[in-house]
């Protein structure tokens, strides 16, 4: 387990679980032929899934395609449970980006059997996260840009404006299912452009261009 960085300093709490949402951007739901959900599709990655998005991102080599999904990530600073959108937003200490690494072929098999997704999405190291900047810097939660370049080519370029469930409402909904505690991470869904990672890929993940810039090289294990 590691301690995330907030404004270049170690956060007061070690990292906890990551609470995630699937299909929160319509264009991404469409690219995987999934229906638009009526309520957020929530799932959790355990603390061992969360690793730094820097230097090296390690992915398994023996379980089929490993897909990247770049997402805006929130660092929780206060405990919330059954919160309103306003209360939920006030509990966010930091904002950054994260990869929701997904074993896509494993996930397709699980989906076909209507089984849970943990084998495909909750494995160790499946949630590399960037450093975080203070949430107080955000003027408009519905206008945050996120982008992922691989080997100097743009692969994902999205904006929170296109979320089906906006960040305050999403957080509140999550807090009605799971308590969120200091050190927990919330992933907010991926825009279109997901694809497969290869050994040696050089990743550059950004929040709002230069608020957060995280770079790492993919290594298959
Ligand atoms: Zn995702």
Q: What does this 3D model show about the protein?
A:
The chain has 221 residues and is of the alpha+beta class. It has one domain: Fumarylacetoacetate hydrolase, domain 2, CATH 3.90.850.10. 16% of the residues lie in helices and 36% in strands. The chain is built from 5 helices and 18 strands. The strands form 5 sheets. The chain has a 6-stranded mixed β-sheet. Strands 6-18-17-13-14 form a 5-stranded mixed β-sheet, with no helix packed on it. It has a 3-stranded antiparallel β-sheet with strand order 10-7-16. A hairpin with a 2-residue loop joins strand 13 (145-150) and strand 14 (153-159). It is globular, with a radius of gyration of 16 Å. The model has no long low-confidence stretch (mean pLDDT 96).
Q: How would the blueprint of this fold be written?
A:
Elements: E1 5-6, E2 9-10, E3 18-22, H1 26-31, E4 41-45, E5 50-52, E6 55-59, E7 66-68, E8 70-76, H2 85-90, E9 92-99, E10 102-103, H3 104-112, H4 118-121, E11 127-129, E12 133-134, E13 145-150, E14 153-159, H5 167-177, E15 185-187, E16 195-196, E17 202-207, E18 212-220
Parallel strand pairs: 3-15, 5-11, 6-18
Antiparallel strand pairs: 1-2, 3-4, 7-10, 7-16, 8-9, 8-15, 9-12, 13-14, 13-17, 17-18
Zinc ion is lined by residues 20, 22, 69, 71, 100, 189-190.
């Amino acid at each position: 387990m590691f301690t995330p960085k907030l404004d270049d300093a170690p956060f007061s709490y070690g990292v906890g679980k990551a609470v995630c949402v699937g299909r929160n951007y319509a264009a991404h739901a469409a690219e995987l032929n999934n229906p638009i959900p009526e309520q957020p599709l929530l799932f959790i990655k355990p603390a061992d899934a969360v690793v730094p998005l820097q230097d090296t991102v390690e992915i398994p080599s023996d379980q089929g395609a490993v897909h990247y999904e770049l997402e805006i990530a929130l660092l929780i600073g206060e405990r919330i449970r059954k919160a309103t959108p306003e209360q939920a937003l006030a509990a966010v200490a930091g904002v950054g980006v994260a990869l929701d690494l997904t074993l896509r072929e494993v996930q397709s098999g699980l989906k076909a059997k209507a089984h849970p997704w943990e084998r495909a999405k909750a494995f160790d190291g499946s949630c590399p996260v960037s450093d975080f900047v203070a949430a107080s810097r955000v003027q408009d939660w519905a206008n945050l840009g996120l982008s992922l370049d691989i080997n100097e080519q743009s692969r994902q370029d999205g904006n929170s404006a296109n979320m089906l469930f906006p960040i305050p409402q999403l957080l509140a909904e999550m807090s009605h299912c799971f308590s969120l505690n200091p050190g927990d991470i919330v992933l907010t869904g991926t825009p279109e452009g997901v694809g497969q990672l290869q050994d040696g890929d050089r990743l550059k993940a950004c929040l709002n261009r230069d608020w957060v810039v995280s770079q790492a090289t993919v290594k298959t294990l």
